[in-house]
């Protein structure tokens, strides 16, 4: 069960189970539609130890974060006096003090409940295997695709293309200037740009950067839920060069009012930088016509239920913030009566889960947001790095975590649903065990699925 605990504090989620529930039935097209068991690699969610050790009991259990000690060598950097903290650091400290009790008490309650059900007890069910390759050249391909001519008005009317043709055969797809849609009831393993990807059922996606988002607009669909995970600017990203950051001011250009249905729920992942949080609350949401409703916190814990970082760490916090709001256009407010029937969004709820060891892979929010948007809601993720069943996704790395190197694929005899708990079967065939090769450069309307 992906939502292990639900209570007044929030939820404990099994993030890997959230992924796997979309792949209980899977076929591989190139092998005459052979049936597969498909599971995201468990190794990615086996965060066994906190980045700090504890001399007595876990910080989550007792709250004694002052008893945590670094496991690596002490930093050689000169420690600054408290009076030398800059304004940003003072703001961070003030924000942390405001929410500290909620994070500490709520996490302890949720973790205790999960442990009583046999979850977050430190037990692992995976063999010692290396993490999948994180190399991804999709962003570079999107950059190359910018050299292609823009789609003209006539082609915009045909901005959607099927991943697989109606006769069951594979089709030619243009991933960079058209929304690709899979209407299959099962997940499918297909070859795109010379690489194998697992595509969940009933999903649509556009692989493009910020300058080529127009096909999503011309898709003509309005969404009841929009989740954003922007590539925020910060020093860590700049040093690591993992991805290209986007200036905050550029986010205002996202066509949220065009994509949002009346009273659409808008959710934005925000780093623990107060300036980013203020920007979302005071500038970005008002610019789009989005009313701020609540702040939630994603709390990251180990498989034993400890914070992945000490709660009071000055370097990294074990939580991230989500800002939730409702799109309220003037016309919608004047005519819509659905506001009164909305399920209220409570403030300061916690989402506790073991984080992925893969950089920037966030847990799916489908389970926790369903009550606020309805089971039949049309959902969109912006700046996505993976796909979700029933969702539309956009980003310049939108297929990154769909590569078969992140999955364990096991041939099956028939199309029966896959039973839980057998992904570590010794007969399993691990897909993409070697580092994936480089995809071919983009070719307009010539990339094939084979």
Description:
The structure is a single chain. The protein is 21% helix and 24% strand. With 450 residues, it is of the alpha/beta class. The chain has a single domain (3-46, 121-125, 137-413, 427-448), classed as 3-Layer(aba) Sandwich (Rossmann fold), CATH 3.40.50. The strands form four sheets. It has a twelve-stranded mixed β-sheet with strand order 1-2-17-15-16-14-13-18-19-12-9-7. The longest helix has 30 residues, at 87-116. The chain is globular. Residues 53-59, 61-73, 334-340, 417-438 and 440-450 have low confidence and may be disordered.
Strand order of the largest sheet: 1-2-17-15-16-14-13-18-19-12-9-7
Give the name of the CATH superfamily. Vaccinia Virus protein VP39
Q: What is the CATH class designation?
A: Alpha Beta
Can you tell me the number of structural domains?
Answer: 1
Features:
21% helix; disordered C terminus; globular; 450 residues; six-stranded mixed β-sheet; Rossmann fold; alpha/beta
Condensed summary:
This protein has 450 residues and is of the alpha/beta class. It has a single domain, classed as Rossmann fold (3-Layer(aba) Sandwich), CATH 3.40.50. It is 21% helix and 24% strand.
Fold topology:
Blueprint: E1 3-7, E2 10-13, H1 15-20, E3 26-28, E4 34-40, E5 52-54, H2 59-62, E6 68-70, H3 87-116, H4 138-145, H5 153-156, E7 160-162, E8 172-173, E9 179-182, E10 187-192, E11 195-199, E12 203-207, H6 214-218, E13 223-228, H7 235-240, H8 256-259, E14 260-270, H9 274-288, E15 290-300, E16 319-327, H10 330-335, E17 350-353, H11 366-373, E18 379-382, E19 391-395, E20 407-411, E21 429-430, E22 447-448
Parallel strand pairs: 2-17, 3-10, 7-9, 12-19, 13-14, 13-18, 15-17, 18-19
Antiparallel strand pairs: 1-2, 3-4, 4-20, 5-6, 8-22, 9-12, 10-11, 14-16, 15-16, 20-21
């Amino acid at each position: 069960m992906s939502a292990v605990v639900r209570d007044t504090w929030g939820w404990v989620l099994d993030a890997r189970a959230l992924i796997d529930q979309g792949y209980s039935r899977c076929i591989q097209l190139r092998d005459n539609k052979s049936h597969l068991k498909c599971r995201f690699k468990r190794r990615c969610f086996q965060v066994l130890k906190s980045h700090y050790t504890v001399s007595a009991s876990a910080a989550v259990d007792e709250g004694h974060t002052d008893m945590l000690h670094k496991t690596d060598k002490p930093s050689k950097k000169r420690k600054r006096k408290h009076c030398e903290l800059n304004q940003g650091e003072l703001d961070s400290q003030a924000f942390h003090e405001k929410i500290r009790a909620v994070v500490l008490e709520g996490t302890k309650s949720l973790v205790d409940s999960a442990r009583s059900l046999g979850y977050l007890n430190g037990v692992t069910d995976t063999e010692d295997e290396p993490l999948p390759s994180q190399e991804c050249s999709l962003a570079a391909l999107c950059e190359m695709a910018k050299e292609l001519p823009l789609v003209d008005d006539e082609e915009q009317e045909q901005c959607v293309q099927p991943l697989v043709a109606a006769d069951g055969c594979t089709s030619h797809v243009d991933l960079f200037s058209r929304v690709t849609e899979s209407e299959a009831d099962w997940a499918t393993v297909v070859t795109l740009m010379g690489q194998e990807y697992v595509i969940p059922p009933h999903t649509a996606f556009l692989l493009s950067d910020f300058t080529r988002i127009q096909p999503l607009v011309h898709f003509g669909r309005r969404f009841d839920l929009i989740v954003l995970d922007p590539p925020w600017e910060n020093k860590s990203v700049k040093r690591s060069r993992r991805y290209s950051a986007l200036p905050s001011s550029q986010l205002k250009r996202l066509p949220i009012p065009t994509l949002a249905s009346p009273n659409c729920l808008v959710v934005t992942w925000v780093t623990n930088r107060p300036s980013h949080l203020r920007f979302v609350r005071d500038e970005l949401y008002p610019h789009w016509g989005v009313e701020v409703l609540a702040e939630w916190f994603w709390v990251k814990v180990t498989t034993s239920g400890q914070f992945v970082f000490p709660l009071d760490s000055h370097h990294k916090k074990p939580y991230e913030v989500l800002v939730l709001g409702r799109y309220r256009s003037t016309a919608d407010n004047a005519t819509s009566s659905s506001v009164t029937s909305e399920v209220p969004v409570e403030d300061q709820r916690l989402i506790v889960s073991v984080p992925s060891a893969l950089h920037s892979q966030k847990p799916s929010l489908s389970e926790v947001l369903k009550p606020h948007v309805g089971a039949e809601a049309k959902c969109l993720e912006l700046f996505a790095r993976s796909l979700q069943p029933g969702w539309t996704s956009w980003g310049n790395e939108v297929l990154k975590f769909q590569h078969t190197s992140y999955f364990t694929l096991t041939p099956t005899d028939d199309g029966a649903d896959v039973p839980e708990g057998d992904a570590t079967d010794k007969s399993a065939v691990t897909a993409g065990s070697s580092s994936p090769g480089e995809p071919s450069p983009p070719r307009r309307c010539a990339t094939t699925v084979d």
